[in-house]
Each structure stands twice: as C-alpha cells, then as structure tokens.
C-alpha cells in the first residue's frame, strides 16, 4: 500500500506526518521551513509511494476562515499542481496544537521540549493524520452498513 502524508502548514514551519505502508499507524515525519516543503515532499514521494495528502485547514469555531486559511488554500493549490496524480484532502485542524501540547505533556516531555514549536507542528500533523484516518474508517464502516441495508431491503 501507499502512504498518506499529513501537513500542518504554517507560513514559517510545516509539520509533516506519515502513515506506515499498511496505513495502520500515523507517525511524525519532520518539520521543515515553509519555503522548502515542496522540494522536501518531491524527494520524499520519489522514494515512498504516496496515496494522498491531507492538509489541516484552519477555521474558527463558527466555521469562518482565519488569517491563515488563505495561506493554506494557496499551499493546497500548489500541492495539487505539483502532484497532479496524488489527491489532496483537507480536514479541520481546530485545536490540534492544543491537543499536541497536551499529548506531549501526557507523554512526559519536559517544558523545554513542549515549547519547541517545530515539535508541536510535527505532533499536530500526526493528530491531523490520525483524525483523517478515523474519519475515513468511519465513513467506510457506514458506507458498508448502508450497502448491507440496501441489499437486505425488499
């Protein structure tokens, strides 16, 4: 199977996460400068078959755009042009940084490590990827249930 790459895009740093080849586990990949992310992904995808990208989309609680939403949308367009054969999905990234910081605290990381924004961005990308994988799994489960229901309907 091919891998899925998650992106927590920021105008300075970009957190990246990736699945294992069987798409069971999401793990951290790297944090790179925003200006270098496309070249990094080109090299990575050349060596690792990639099924899709999932990009965290920043939105407010009322589902309106944030100051960063337009930057992320622009990045998504660049990603689509650069990798036309690899689908790009977006997913809600609300609270991923908060969840990442809490996960790092729960994991026993010290204050200095938790203050490292590059680490927080990478862990946020893992959370984005885990969320996407869970949504996809639930969708497949409900789709299967619908198919079974339709089959059994007279």
UniProtKB/TrEMBL annotation:
Its EC number is 3.1.-.-. Residues 2-100 form the YqgF/RNase H-like domain. Its main location: cytoplasm. It comes from the Bacteria. GO terms for cellular component: cytosol. InterPro entries: RNaseH-like_sf, YqgF, YqgF/RNaseH-like_dom, YqgF/RNaseH-like_dom_sf. Belongs to the YqgF HJR family. This is Putative pre-16S rRNA nuclease.
